[in-house]
Amino acid sequence: MTDDDADSTSDGTPGEPLRYDQARWTEDADTYEPLLAEKTLDTVDVDSPLPDELTRETLELPALAEPELARHYTRLSAMNYGVESGPVPLGSCTMKHNPAFIEDVAATPAGLVHPDRVGETVQGTLELLYRLQDYLGRIGGMDAVTLQPPAGAAGEFTGIRIARAFHRADGDERSEVLIPDSAHGTNFASAAMAGYDVVTLPSGEDGRVDLDALEAALSGETAALMLTNPNTLGLFERDIRDIAEMVHDVGGLLYYDGANLNALLGRARPGDMGFDVMHYNVHKTFATPHGGGGPGAGPVGVTDDLARFLPDPHVRKTDGRYERYTPEGTIGKVHGYEGNWLVLVKAFAYIARLGDAGLADASAKAVLNANYLAERIDYEVPFGPFHHEFVASAGETDAADVAKRMLDYGVHPPTTKWPEIVDEALMTEPTESESKRTLDQLTAAFDAARGDDEAARADAPERTAARRIDQVAAARNPRLSWQALEDV
Ligand SMILES: *Cc1c(COP(=O)(O)O)cnc(C)c1O
Among 353, 454, 459, 461, which has the minimal tally of Cβ within 10 Å of its Cβ? Predict the structure, then answer.
């Protein structure tokens, strides 16, 4: 198929949305593919060399032949939806395509080196880590990078602790971290967990940092200002140099939430804007799988002034050899060894394959796709022009209902109801991976979901394997094993 086959008409109106029917295997309307334990349980005798008091005599285990087992998981995957089923335009989450070759690279035997091997015998492993530190440093304009933190939020926590260590080294105890109201929820949590009082800054009328509010909030108590730029509305903070100067004037540090670098890759660098510390999410920007909550990696970059506080160990190159060492003022460990090694291998492979030109091309397409979609959908899209994402408003319509209905049109909905500064927000990030054809299908799904009658939306999704679930109960009372299910 070429772009000419796209579901759009020449006058620019989107065509019909896809009709999506998700697979489902069921014995009656309320059941799904049974759990393995529900299919068949066998009691097996346990014969173990361990002491008796530590072992059971029998164990109940599912007993299925290989085809049944294979079908079970294949069915579950068909009842699921992922980035290989269709677009997942979750704003802020950056669900781009994870190219298959990174899995091949990670599957090489060299991927399986034991982390306790002494450095002299694993020079290749250390070289890869060193070069990834270097790549990320150059991408972000940072002098040193740790790969240890296992997620973006862990990166924030690490970065804020580094900021605190930096101040404390001067006997300077500060109590506040400033965060704009449009920031990701983890920013508030990370600063609070690191022991700071969080001061929330209201956004200005244009969706950017309000300089007067910033001025009023800054003081000798300000340890750091945490910023996302472009912010979660997809807007670039034009006054970033003034902001950096204002924060530095009171002795504070500027923290960059670089979870999503898609708008900046190969084009602009936080370090050049005056940021002192930042984190990266390799599972967003650098195409490693999000993997259902992990493992991920949230490397942290810092300027020279902060490098001595980095987590232990760090990798450096001395006289042509790579070695681990303990930075002199280290905040300690934030993860075992050098971090989630295989995830880091994948990020390395992705960056090395794309190179400077490829990364810049990815950001150009990410920005083009976001602006194209924002322009096409029949929604109010306040603010703009945008970078890699935008926030549409469903206006009088409930954004969650729109999102549920979009599932029936074969696309994953955007992030809903956040940031709160836009009414009934649909925060959307198509990423560079999607073709014009897919963007047109997304447009059709957006418009159809909002155009449907209210009853259809309230009852949606109708054509997915699982209908509308009780989200509050699912979040508050998760049942994560078959035993938990049996206890009900
Ligand atoms: C995803 C995200 C984070 C948190 O990253 P995790 O890896 O999910 O912990 C932080 N900030 C922004 C802007 C994000 O989009």
Answer: 454
